Amino acid sequence: MRTLRLVTTLAVAGLLAGGVALVAATPASAATAVFSVTNNWGNGYQGQVTVTNNTSAQITSWRVEFDLPSPSSVSQSWNAQQAASGSHYTFTNVSWNGTLAAGASTSFGFLVNGTGTPLNCTVNGAACAGGPPPTTPPPTTPPPTTPPPTTGTPVERYGQLRVCGTTMCDKNGARVQLRGISSMWLNWETAPYAENLSALRWMRDNWNLQVIRAAMGVEPAGAYLSDPNKARTQVETIINNAVTAGVYVIVDWHAHEAQNNQSQAVAFFGDLARRYGHLPNVIWEPYNEPLQVSWTNVIKPYHQAVVSAIRAADPDNIVVLGTPTWSQDVDVAAASPVSGTNLMYTLHFYSCTHGSSLRAKGDAAIRAGLALFVTEWGASNADGGLDGRACLPEAQSWIDWMKANGISWTAWKLDVGTDTTNLLSPGAPVTGGWNNYLHGHAPFVVSNMR
What we know:
alpha/beta; 8-stranded parallel β-sheet; 5-stranded antiparallel β-sheet; globular
């Protein structure tokens, strides 16, 4: 008779309860089940389950089921297909991890909102600890949970952000999907729309903007390398306005060959981290869109240097890392991620150019455990929409995909012009009030922010 063993790490029960988990000794031939948490943020945790074929023959599928005491719930999972009926959860293998050779293992992970731990666990119909499936659940009295507030500014509601599994969570451990807009290259903007506090408040209140991206150009004439004082002033104005308005702000080193100016980036981010890293509003983006260069030999070492400078002063704010080929090859980065905490990876798309094949790269990165952030996108061709065309059905597929995966985004770009991705039409005032000045893909962007 074939048996299948589920191996987890039950130490998590002790972590969550504040005590020590005790596991009774079992014969060597018995299945074992121990539970552990890979990340714990008080009101939620990240769990992992490892399924092991404890037989001498190959198996071709597996199914794990358990109950969670109310009001705890699974908010997200990866590396398994999830189904739920009330508080009962079922996880089955996906196409690539169902077949296990004798003694082989595979893992899936999940996020739990709440502190309840799995009960009545079975694997392929048998108890996770071996023997028949459990019939009588042990009594449990889960602690009450407090839902996050629904009023106040975004930062008042969500507070300090963190990476939890493959998504972003707020101060209470609940999943967050930020939505907002990016500035134009600050060195090329037609007017200081992104630096205006009244405009930022108007977007927060009328568009439901939660995050603004300060796209600080680095390499072109008039950008940071040739006029650092002007660029710093623009970025710090946007940061300070975001703090006043209670929204999040992405500080974007908007470059395509940042590895050639690594020392300047290290100095820039190290300085801003010392002065603004204590604020929960700030998200760092050290490399907008690397070109088609090596992740392991060029981009990753650059990120390691800049992240080290940031972490010297700011231990916890999220850092979003650019990926090869104009921030599309997230699957390549997933094969050798940067070590550290609260790190996310950049994926950019333009819906007239990019479709399901790029989403497949994103899916692969998520399966590998990466957290993604779409810091730039447009319902246009990859050139930003020079032809004025918008591809809204494909853009909606992207919106749905980002929502399903809890991926935050900022749309390109807050400026006036004829490109599809210019959000404003001529005559738009700098201070906001743009209901009659929406241009290009702006109506689509705004409707998906609200």
